[in-house]
Specification:
The protein has helices at about 40-45, 65-75, 85-110, 140-155, 185-190, 190-195, and strands spanning about 5, 20-25, 30-35, 50, 75-80, 115-120, 130-135, 160, 170-175, 175-180, 200. The protein is an alpha+beta fold. The protein folds into two domains: about 5-80, no CATH class; about 85-200, Beta Polymerase, domain 2, CATH 3.30.460. The protein has a six-stranded mixed sheet with strand order 8-9-10-7-6-11. The chain has a five-stranded antiparallel sheet with strand order 1-5-3-2-4. A hairpin with a 6-residue loop joins β8 and β9 (about 170-175). α3 packs across α4. It is found in: Plastid, Chloroplast. One of its GO terms (molecular function) is ribosomal large subunit binding. This is Protein Iojap, chloroplastic. Pfam families: RsfS (PF02410).
């Protein structure tokens, strides 16, 4: 993610720190603090935010140099240069939702069971929606994946990255939508619904249909 440094009343030289905490403020904004030995508790506590590492463009950054920057400027905000307006984000969300529901319908037509569409955008930074479905054999996983790829490419111009061969957990990554197709045992084991328990579940017209079992 390309980022630029932005301060309320100062312009900070773009000196990338050593491994740091990025605190999510809003979409595309992060509060930055290194994980040194001597930071205050407010900067040190990042239990509710994802930890990431920035790759430095500077060959050597010393602890003292970064400490001086923290003392001088305080909180630093990193903003995405390509940050979209709320209206643009809403339009993108709606397009992704339409695609996700279409994919879920295709999975249902190939007799996938217990299909869930989760809005995970508030929880992760790399996608908007998860689709989780159960299949009962590798050939069925292959059939579901093939139908989804055909729909995505022909009607939406999307090509998935990820698994090309059916596995017990097969993943198709379309960028804004990520599809997870599991065999029953693996779905129970990884339990993504519980792991992303705060995600919003999208209502689907076929959710209450009894699961197909071979």
């Amino acid at each position: 993610m390309e980022a630029c440094c932005s301060l309320v009343s100062h312009s900070l030289p773009c000196v990338s720190p050593r491994p740091c905490d990025l605190r999510r403020l809003g979409r595309g904004e992060f509060n930055l603090s290194r994980r040194p030995r001597k930071l205050s508790g407010s900067l040190r506590d990042s239990s509710t935010f994802p930890r990431m590492a920035l790759r430095s463009n500077v060959s050597e950054d010393t602890d003292d140099m970064f400490d001086d920057l923290i003392k001088k400027y305080g909180k630093v905000v990193f903003k995405r240069k390509d940050q979209k307006s709320p209206g643009e984000e809403a339009n993108d969300d709606a397009e992704s939702l339409s695609f996700a529901v279409a994919v879920a319908k295709v999975a249902n037509e190939v007799k996938a069971a217990d299909i869930r569409v989760l809005f995970v955008k508030p929880l992760v930074y790399w996608t908007r929606f998860f689709i989780i479905a159960t299949a009962f054999s590798r050939p069925q996983i292959d059939a579901i994946g093939s139908k989804i790829r055909d729909l995505a490419e022909k009607q939406y111009g999307k090509v998935a990255s990820g698994d090309t061969k059916p596995n017990s957990w097969t993943l198709l990554d379309f960028g804004d939508v990520v599809v997870h197709i599991f065999l029953p045992e693996q779905r129970d084991f990884y339990n993504l619904e519980e792991f992303y328990g705060n995600a919003t579940s999208i209502d689907l017209p076929f959710e209450n249909q009894p699961p197909f079992r071979s």
